[in-house]
Design a protein that fits this description.
6 helices; mainly alpha; elongated; 195 residues; membrane
């Protein structure tokens, strides 16, 4: 199996890729067409072997036969890819081209609609999860704050010297200021009576 993978990588992919590059660079139409036929056949072979590997991998010399097939496709003497393309692939694709194009357009439209549909559903699920997490987080925060006593809150603020809540301090200061005003008022009346 490892020999097949290595052979296919070198002879089935890298070698043809390099010669395809050379054909494009030289702008030789004959070479360009030859390598395009090879890549079409190789794509079909790769698709077919995905399924045949499942069912035929137990067959004796299965991987060796695949190596021989790739070598036959590449060989300039046998011109295997050219032969397969001209005898089988081109006539089949030419007769079914309109149906294949229609199927591809429909598949493209369906996949776009499915992508939009699942995208909207995904956003709705994410938004719901975010709202639920925020509401649970807010509930946990309010419960945490309720568990604090006034003593805990004053030590958190840094008012370790005053243990009395600030509202109580305000009340006592307002009571002390009232008697002073009443005394000064009575003193003012007493002093006005003396004059």
């Amino acid at each position: 199996y490892c020999l097949f993978v290595f052979s296919r990588l070198i002879f089935g992919t890298l070698y043809p890729a390099y010669y395809s590059y050379k054909a494009v660079k030289s702008k030789d139409i004959k070479e360009y067409v030859k390598w395009m036929m090879y890549w079409i056949i190789f794509a079909l072979f790769t698709t077919a072997e995905t399924f045949t590997d499942i069912f035929l991998c137990w067959f004796p010399f299965y991987y060796e036969l695949k190596i021989a097939f790739v070598a036959w496709l590449l060989s300039p003497y046998t011109k295997g890819s050219s032969l397969l393309y001209r005898k089988f692939v081109h006539p089949t694709l030419s007769s079914k081209e309109k149906e294949i194009d229609d199927c591809l357009v429909q598949a493209k439209d369906r996949s776009y609609d499915a992508l939009v549909h699942f995208g909207k559903r995904g956003l709705n699920v994410a938004a719901t999860a975010a709202v639920m997490a925020a509401s649970k987080g807010q509930g946990a925060l309010s419960e945490r704050l309720r568990s604090f006593s006034m003593q805990d809150l004053s030590t958190i603020r840094g008012d370790s010297s005053s243990t009395v809540p600030p509202s109580v301090t305000v009340r006592t200061s307002s009571k002390q200021s009232q008697p002073k005003t009443s005394r000064s008022a009575s003193e003012g009346t007493g002093s006005s009576g003396k004059c």
